[in-house]
Write a structure and sequence with these properties.
Blueprint (H helix, E strand, L loop, with lengths): L1 E5 L15 E2 L2 E2 L13 H17 L10 E5 L10 H17 L3 E6 L1 H8 L12 E7 L2 H7 L11 E8 L2 E6 L40
Parallel strand pairs: 1-4, 4-5, 5-6, 6-7
Antiparallel strand pairs: 2-3, 7-8
Helix pairs in contact: 1-2
Length: about 210
C-alpha cells in the first residue's frame, strides 16, 4: 500500500521547532551538524525527521515499514527561501522512514521540486528515490512524462499524474506483468507407474498460484 504524506519547512516561526538533535529520547545522527534552534539546515533536518517519526507513530498507521511513503513536495506549503534547508528537511523525513525499512518516493512537479529543493547534492539520500511526477493534462502527456528525468539523480519515474475534469489520474510508468510466467517444461521421462501393491493415498487438494 502507498501512503501520501505532506511536507513543509516552516522554519523557527512554526508552532514547534527543534532545538537540538534529540527527539523522543533518541539522539539523531545529523549530517548537517548540531541543531541550535535557529533556521539552519541542521534544524530543518531535525524538523523533517520529527515529522516523519510522528507520521509513523502517532497517525494510526499500521505496519508502517511495509508501505511506500510518497513525500508530497508542493509550493502551496510553507517553505524556507533556503533551498538547501528545504532539501535537508526532506532528507530528515527520508532518513527516519528508511530507518524503519520503509520505501520512500517523491511526489511533485519538476518545476515545484526545483523551486523548493533545488538540485540536491551527490551525497543526499533523496537521490535514487522513485519519482511520481504530476502536472500532465492528458493520458498522452502523462505517458510522455514517463520519459522525463527523475526528480533526483539516479531515481526512476515510477508514476505520473494527469488531470481530467475535476479528477486526478495516475499513470504507471514501470511495466506491469500482463501474463503469468510460462509453464515449466515437463520432465523428459515420466516417473514409473505405481506398483500393483501400492495403494494410492487420498486425493490432494489443488494448489493455486495468484499473479498480480
Amino acid at each position: 500500500m502507498a501512503l501520501y504524506v505532506n511536507t513543509a519547512n516552516p522554519g523557527a516561526t512554526a508552532h514547534w521547532w527543534p532545538r537540538s538533535n534529540a527527539y523522543r529520547g533518541a539522539n539523531v545522527r545529523n549530517p548537517y551538524g548540531e541543531c541550535d534552534g535557529t533556521d539552519t539546515a541542521a534544524c530543518a533536518y531535525m524538523f523533517g525527521y520529527a515529522m516523519a517519526y510522528d507520521d509513523v507513530n502517532h497517525r494510526g498507521v499500521s505496519d508502517a515499514a511495509h508501505h511506500i511513503w510518497w513525500l508530497d513536495v508542493e509550493t502551496g506549503n510553507s517553505w524556507s527561501p533556503d533551498r538547501a534547508a528545504n532539501a535537508a528537511d526532506l532528507e530528515g523525513m527520508t532518513a527516519y522512514l528508511q530507518s524503519i525499512g520503509a520505501e520512500v518516493g517523491i511526489y511533485s512537479t519538476t518545476y515545484q521540486f526545483r523551486e523548493i529543493a533545488g538540485t540536491v547534492g551527490p551525497g543526499s539520500n533523496l537521490n535514487k528515490l522513485n519519482s511520481w511526477i504530476a502536472g500532465a493534462t492528458s493520458r498522452a502527456s502523462a505517458r510522455a512524462y514517463c520519459s522525463s528525468p527523475p526528480l533526483t539523480s539516479g531515481g526512476t519515474v515510477a508514476l505520473t499524474q494527469f488531470t481530467a475534469g475535476r479528477f486526478d489520474y495516475d499513470y504507471p510508468c514501470l511495466p506491469i506483468p500482463s501474463k503469468p510466467p510460462a509453464t515449466p517444461p515437463k520432465p523428459r521421462h515420466p516417473p514409473d507407474p505405481p506398483k500393483a501393491l501400492d495403494r494410492p493415498g487420498p486425493p490432494r487438494a489443488p494448489s493455486f498460484m495468484r499473479f498480480y
